[in-house]
Amino acid sequence: MACTNATGENRCLNGYYANDGGIHDFILGNTDRYVGFSEMLYWILKESPEGFGNNLTISGTVYGKGTYPSLAWADGFVMNSNTDTEKMDQAIRFIDFYNSPDVKAIIALSRDARDENNRVPRYLLPASEKFYALPEVASDPYYQQFYPVIRSMTPFPTGGLRGNMSAIYRNVSCALTEKGMDMNITAGECPRISGTAVPA
Hints:
Layout: H1 23-28, H2 40-47, H3 49-52, H4 85-98, H5 101-108, H6 129-133, H7 135-138, H8 141-151, H9 161-178
């Protein structure tokens, strides 16, 4: 994704990418790479199947220098420990059903789509070894690229993550404000900044 256009305007900060995150520019060939969630590949291939086909290269987004693993988000089920036994059993049965390779295949491979001839996988990445062993998944050229990235990921604790993300966002915003960019933050949020006009 190219932040600066021909006129020098920074599109990463002016809201240009707010709606589609840069997919449209990627599809049109205005940029040679796109950073986003795996399921966004669905829209790229759906919008331009002739333009891309099996020609894209997938890689994990590495955080940090060196051999750090990619960062991934996983959705999970949470059950209330105060639930009675009958409801708990029903919940566990539903979770087992939903996490089964067959159901994951219906969702991730778009088997529920009406037009079987133009079916594009949704490229969701279930945390299940059995899913990636399914023949249709194992033979898919993009899932073949996603799988090694997934295998190299390691779990990390999420306690306090939201607070840390807020602090990181504030620090980045303050640094950009210090460089003269309008990040719409108040002076009190950036005590390090001195001699810089910060919006109040």
